Amino acid sequence: MTNLESIARKITGILFAQQSLASAGFIAASTLNSIVGKELSQHATWAGVPTAVYLLAGAFAAFMWGYVYDAIDRRNGLTTGLSLGVVGSGVAFYAIAIHSFPIFLGGMVLMGVANAAVQLGRFAAAEVNRPEHRGRAISNVVIGGTVGSVVGPFVAGPAGNIIGSWGIDELAGAYLVSLVLFAIAAVVVFIGLRPDPREIAKQVAEKFPETGPLAGGAKYVPDL
Fold first, then answer.
1. Could you read off the pLDDT of 88-129 as tens digits, one per residue?
2. Domains present along the chain, CATH in parentheses
3. Which of 93, 130, 191, 192 is the most interior residue, by most CB within 10 Å?
4. Is 126 in contact with 224 (CB distance < 8 Å)?
């Protein structure tokens, strides 16, 4: 298991990096969603709508991503999710620039779908590790979200100042930050997440038959 353990550590490290980057992107945007909702809709009572749309989109997309990860493997699935985050952030940025509330909600839908992919991706760290190490592997990836929650708000302010100097609403700065962070995370995953966790999971399942669902045709719901 020495080689498998080395690969598992590498995969967990890559997932930690992408979780940190993606989380920073989501947090940077989410800190302003309500403010943007109020500004674009011109109604204070609509301030929570963008966040509601974002969360609902993520909730409904989570089930879909299970099938996607099985169909096109973990690396391509996670890269696709992060790419949707890039598009969603770009749509949100454009919506703020032209002051369009409906378009902004469209961006929130895409970002919510992307977030579901990122959250499900953390379980790839579980399936490549031996059973007794899976809880720790997931927690290590989740720590990346903590890093992102600190970095995201920290960079949103300066980005807003830069965007403001371009003659664009400062609120758009956070979404530009999200776009850049998602793009970097997608590149990290596409290049670094090799071999694909699904292939390693099959080898781990052969070594540990009690984790049989990982080796079979079941959908991507690792047994922790």
1. 999 999 999 999 999 999 999 999 999 999 988 888 888 888
2. 2-214 (1.20.1250.20)
3. 93
4. yes
